[in-house]
Design brief:
This protein is mostly beta strands and about 120 residues long. It has no helices and eleven strands. Strands 2, 4, 5, 6, 9, 10 and 11 form a seven-stranded mixed β-sheet that branches.
Length: about 120
Amino acid sequence: QVQLVESGGGSVQAGGSLRLSCAASGTIFSVGDMGWYRQASGEQRELVAGITNGGDVDYADSVKGRFTISRDNAKNTITLQMNSLKPEDTDVYYCIAVISNDDGVHDYWGQGTQVTVSS
């Protein structure tokens, strides 16, 4: 089975930084697009940052200039460097990855990691 394991969440004061990581493991043929979502205020999760297998990136407007997503294809990992954090960034952050293996191509989700930013 494929697992996405997240780490790096925690509590920080406004203006501080955190670095999230997500590692895919298990039976994997290839890893495609990966990204980070958060719950936001509505029913659906919001894409915070995404990165393709080739390294193309996309960010939510609210985090542009503050967050940076990157990946290590050899390790099947992504990171999210979060700088200049704001209280409104407080949320549970979920890693997502498109992974192909014996079972086909599927989206996989991490367990979520809590980010808390205090004013």
